[in-house]
Amino acid sequence: MNKDGRVQTQSKNLVVHVSLLFFVLLAIGPIFVMVINSFKTMEGIFTGPLKLPSSETLTLDGFKRAITQGNFLRNYANSTIVTLGATLLTVICSCLAAYGITEYTTKLSKMIAGLFTIGIMLPVSLGTIVIIKMMVWLNILNTHISLILVYVGIFVPLGVILMVTNFRTVSNDLKEAARIDGANEFKTFLIVVPLVMPGVAAVAAITMLPVWNDLWFPLVLTAGPKTQTLTLGIQQFVGTYNNDWQALIASLVLGAIPLILLFTLFSKQFIKGLSDGYGK
Question: Each residue of 261-278: pLDDT tens digit?
Answer without folding.
Answer: 877 776 666 666 556 555
